[in-house]
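User: Hi! I'm working on a homework problem where we have to compare a predicted structure to a textbook description. Could you give me the structure for the chain below?
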Amino acid sequence: MHHAPVRLLLELSGRFSIVGPLRHARPPENRILSAARFAAGALVLSAPLLAQPVITPDASREGHRADAVFWYTTVAAGVAFALVVAALTVLLARYRRSRSPKAAYETGAGRGARTLTLALAGLVFVVIDLNLVRMSKRDMDQYLFAFPSGPDVVRVEVMPQQWAWNVRYPGPNGVFGDGDDVVALNEVRVPVSRPVMLNLKSKDVVHSFYVPNFRLKHDANPGFVTRAWFTPTRTGRYEIACSQVCGWAHYLMKGTLIVLPEDEWRAWTSDAEADAARRFDPADREAQWGWTWVP
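Assistant: Happy to help. Predicted structure tokens:
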């Protein structure tokens, strides 16, 4: 019975002509030509992608800090990976079978092996990890928790909910919640070159206010206020996304952050304040959401 598969294979090879040509390998020059054509086609198809920037352009005064951490991590990890691959390549070539027909087994339990392992791990920890901690600590002190203050700061309260961004500005007197606030939906308008301070508090579940072009991502939690700030340097329209999965319609959590020249922003603010005064209804409690500003 154990000879049946062999007889079946022989019979198939005699009955089907396709089996014969499959035994002949393609000439080497044809394989090289096919590989070159494939590589050329892949390069042509990927050209539009290669022309795009690696990350979204930075449009804020503080965004370079996040970029510096990103690029340092990428380059440092890439160099470490390249060194490991180079070491493996050298070892594979040096101890290949033709040069070392008899294998020598090393368990790594010796003092030398342990010392080398600890030295390499310490080098990676000091050069990469500790330096990232240093950069992060510097950015936390100089930017993240260095909240701006003063008359030039634009203050905005943002209350995300499933599935929208509620936005509130103080009225002409600069006080939130006294009936003259400017309220918007899914749009945040700010002037260029002025610091913008955000108070974030969710209405329902955890959301995250994410503006890639400003390198800004900050959670909004129900029950307490979190703070974030940035300084836009370029006018334009930028996407606001929610970077926390907040329910089945999470994809609808899309807003727009509009950066205007100072004169255009002042004109918009004046019109919005007048419109808010006309629309104010003290009986509409739902429209009067908000909280005491947290500086």
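For your comparison, note the following. Residues 111-144 form the longest helix (34 residues). The CA atoms of residues 97 and 252 lie 60 Å apart. Good luck with the assignment!
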